[in-house]
Structure formats: structure tokens, C-alpha cells
């Protein structure tokens, strides 16, 4: 089954264009499933039945795994067997009757405008690293792009004249996202002084670089945002995704329509974007409770 798994992952990468992180997630989930099947005496995909999959999933509940882990595993297993059936490697799909439990969607964490201003003002722009951090934070909040998209930016992905960035999102799908003057000016400042100072005589394709002359990593930026959150005196836990959520929420609060926000966030389905209507509803309920005389 390991050979079938490798074939499935290649299919997802080549035909579906899924990201490396998504492929790793599928691989991790399915390797656990395969090991379980082998340990219980089911060595080939053709031998696996509906009851075997139920036995595998039952252990998640027994061990107290959260619903996110269970749903992700079910999705991985279902997609794997759909592929095997499509390729005629099995005669019947044993996962066809496995239903995905409904998950209650949690509201994304957001920060207020005042907190955004405090965070953006936190970096010490008199240093090359501080100016870089300021440029990254401004760009992230101005565009709402994912952290992977932010660190993946190249210099020629930014159109300073027209004021937009070209982003390559999930599945290498390209989209154009506008950025405001503040982010544009901060980027120009970074490119003019900070980036050359950190690169010295070296070259790098990445827009945002480190002192070592290499591109910024996800982990590196997580540490940066954590550092500036503490420096700004913000008690909330803030991640790069918090700024993405705040970007969308603040646009919605000021009258932007969901379709426009969907395009900028790069959501394939507008139902994903609709969670921000819940954020706005929660905000309105808080205001009503605070100010209405009979609330």
C-alpha cells in the first residue's frame, strides 16, 4: 500500500496542484492508516472493508482526539480510495459510506484597529531587521495574504507603479491583490536600505530576507510577529493568520462585499469567506448588548 500511497500523492501534486503542506498532511494521515491496517492483518487495499475503516476511526474517539483530526483523517482516507477506484486498483470503495461529521466553525481571531496600529508601530525601523519587519507586517495587513504567500513573494511580484502584488496561492493559483500607499512606501523604503544592508554583496530571489541572505521562513516570521506583539503590549495571541482575519473583518465592517473579499483572500468557495459575516454578527451583538436599554 505504500506504493499506492506514493502514486496517490504524485497524482495530488501533478494533477491537482496541491501545496507541499497539504501533501505532507495527506501522507502523514494515510501512513498512520496503512500501519494500522497492516498491524491488524489487512495487507492490501483490495482487502479493506467498511468495517475496517470504522475500527480505525474508533480509536480516535477512544483516545480523545479532537474533531479536526478525525475529519482530516476521514477526508484523507476517502480521497485515497476514490483515487484507487478511479485508477481501477480496487473494485469497490470501502470509504464511500463514511460520513464526515459536521464541525462547528470557530470564529477567527481578530484584533482591533488600535491593536493593528500598535503592532505596526512596534518594529524599530532604525535597524535593517526592524524596517524589514515593519514592511512585512504592513504588507500582510494591507493585502490579507497567507504567511506562505508573504514569504514566497519575489521582488518582481510587486507592481509599485499600479500598487498591487501578484500572489501564487494554493494549487499555484495566481491572483492580484491591491495594497495601499502605506505598505507600498514601506516596501520601497525596505528595498532601498534594509534589504541591501542585509544581503551585502549576496543575491536572493525572495523579497524578504534574513541577515544570512536567505529568504524568510514561516517559523522565522512567527517569531517576529510574536516578538512585536509582546513589544506592542497586546495581550491577545496573534499569529500571521490573525492579521489575515483582521484584514477581511475590517473590510467587511466598512462596506466591502463578500465576493470582493473572497477574491482578495483567494478562497475557492465563497462559503469559506462567509465566516466573516459571523464575525460581524458577533460584533453587532456585543454593541447591542452594551448600548440597548433592554438588552
What does this structure look like?
By secondary structure, this protein is mainly alpha-helical. The protein folds into 2 domains: 85 residues, DNA polymerase, domain 1 (Orthogonal Bundle), CATH 1.10.150.130; 178 residues, Intergrase catalytic core (hpI Integrase, Chain A, Orthogonal Bundle), CATH 1.10.443. It is 58% helix and 4% strand. The protein is built from 13 helices and 3 strands. The chain has a 3-stranded antiparallel β-sheet with strand order 1-2-3. α1 packs antiparallel against α2.
Task: Reconstruct the topology from this structure.
Blueprint: H1 2-14, H2 20-39, H3 50-62, H4 67-86, H5 113-121, H6 128-143, H7 147-151, E1 158-159, E2 164-168, E3 174-178, H8 181-199, H9 218-231, H10 240-253, H11 258-265, H12 270-273, H13 275-291
Antiparallel strand pairs: 1-2, 2-3
Helix pairs in contact: 1-2, 2-4, 5-6, 6-8, 6-10, 10-13
Question: Care to give the gist of this entry?
Answer:
This protein has 295 residues and is mostly helical.
Instruction: Determine the fraction of residues in helical runs and give it as a percent range.
Output: 55-70%
Radius of gyration: 23 Å
Total of domains = 2
CATH fold-level name of the largest domain: hpI Integrase, Chain A
Structural class: mainly alpha
Proportion of residues in extended strands: under 5%
* Helical stretch tally: 13
Provide the low-confidence segments as ranges.
none
Within CATH, the superfamily of the largest domain carries the name Intergrase catalytic core
Basic shape: globular
Mean of all residue-level pLDDT scores: 86
Strand tally? 3
**In this structure, how is the largest beta sheet organized?**
3 strands, antiparallel
CATH structural class of the largest domain: Mainly Alpha
Oligomer: single chain
Q: What distance separates the N and C termini?
A: 60 Å
Order of helices and strands: HHHHHHHEEEHHHHHH
CATH architecture annotation name of the largest domain = Orthogonal Bundle
Going across the biggest sheet, name each strand in turn: 1-2-3
